[in-house]
User: Fold this.
Amino acid sequence: MERLSERLQDLLARVHTHRKTVSFERLSEAALIAQETYGLSEHWTGESLLDHTIGVAEVLLPFEPDEDALIACLLHHVLQFPGWTLVRIERQFGSAVQHIVRGVHLLSHVTMNDRRMSMGNLRSMLLKVSDDMRVVLMILCDRSHVMAHVSLLSPEDQRRISDDVLHLFAPVAARLGIYTLKHALEACAFPVVYPVDTERICEQLNMLKKNRGVFLEDTAKKLQTFLRIHGIVTSVFAREKEPYSIFTKMRTKTVSAITDIYDLFALRVVVGTLEQCYQVLGLLHGIGHPVPQRFKDYIGFSKPNGYQSLHTNLMNLPGVPEGVMVEVQIRTKEMHREAEMGIAAHWRYKEGGAAEKAIQRKRLQTVLADQELVENSPEESALQDHIFVLTPKGDIIELPERATPLDFAFEVHSNIGLHCRFAKVNGTTVSLDRYLENGDIVEIIKGDRPSASPQWMSILKVASAKAKLRKYLLAAKHAGFLEKESTTSAQEKIASPKKEKRPRLQRKDALIELEGGVPMPLLYARCCCPNEGGHESIAGVITRNGEVKIHRSDCGMLKNVNPERQIGVWWRPSTGSG
Assistant:
């Protein structure tokens, strides 16, 4: 057996030290597979794929992931390599690992491709596929590790990735209450997306420190001593508001100076019991001056994501300059742990039964569905009934629930649908009427000639796919009829009186291609006279005698045409002059 790299050995040793229940043998098997599969391959950030995977696992470890989550973390890139499918992952490591890898693989493509959906729709997509906290947590850890290496990328890629992190992934971390990841993501992304605002805010902070001195750490020590004298053993931490939090508050509160922000300076007091939280509150109100209407009891009325603390704003605390307000947050150790780790602090899959897991999933869905995260517009609400699958190249395709591989084929391109022979889902050949699921990787095998048939109408679930098939069947019906009648009607055509000539195209010389490659006679419309070989956009209409009439796309006549009689047409690419 190949020896594991030093970094992998260190990772496994850390897991074994703190997580005695994890199967070291099973985890070692996954680590060896990752090492052998990734080899010298590079991640798109520029670091090696193996180092990236280990880095994500190191970000994940403080959240105490279970055995399946750790294995999935090591294997979440194997689907990029030949021979690895979701079916194989499930066979070797079980359905839970396969489920996590499926979700992470899907969500990891959200920022790697050109975005075609609004940010709200992307958040809705995250809500739809995230029925497992481990999937969400792993993708957030992945983004956090990516941001640590974002400076290695081109300025354009830095901006694109940071923008997604700031406006999609950091808000998700905040909604889940995972503030350690929220602050880490924002700290890396904000200077890239808003460099001018970052510089301006940092200058104001530095000027403030210069004028008022660095006082917060000294005040924290004085309060810790004061509380110990009164019999309460505490830990008091100093915290300045993060630049991005200052930026968002200045925008939402329409303030121009950071001195107008109430919670610019904060102290966090961590005590042993719930009773001590309120004792500390009373003691601090005795040595400082409480600011009216600035007290919040998040212990009695916790936030939706489970956050609990007492918040109070005080003036004239020991060591604080005159006129400076300090926010004090008071909480127990358990509250502090949950405040840092959010919903992930109590997400456990060790011995929990199916009912407990269902409750936890429901809680995750409820938290993610909060209106602060997903705007409840009709467009975004509709996504709740949709699924998201992947092409072999990693493009995300959105489909309605109960969609089939045949729907997928038509969604990618009409010609792929019309030429579809069979489909593979997650590396396994399946029937064309199989229902697809979130995260499926779908591959369509095409034939040289169209293979569409009327029976496909019962397989298709998507209206647009059915419309494309109807157009093809209508066109093919006319084409077959004309081919059948061409011989018997030849003499009739010769005997018929000559009519006025219309501009007709010969198939062998045509500069136009038809959707589906259907062999039909082409005719230029007289109403708009498209310029043969031109560059203007064109549209095709199937006439009642089986011809395709070519119009300019902006032709007014198209408004009166039945959409089912329209067929896709385009200029054939030029092959150069001879």
Notes: Residues 197-344 form a domain with the Beta Polymerase; domain 2 fold (CATH 3.30.460.10). The chain has four domains: 6-193, 197-344, 385-461, 476-571. The longest strand covers residues 325-332. The longest helix spans residues 463-485.
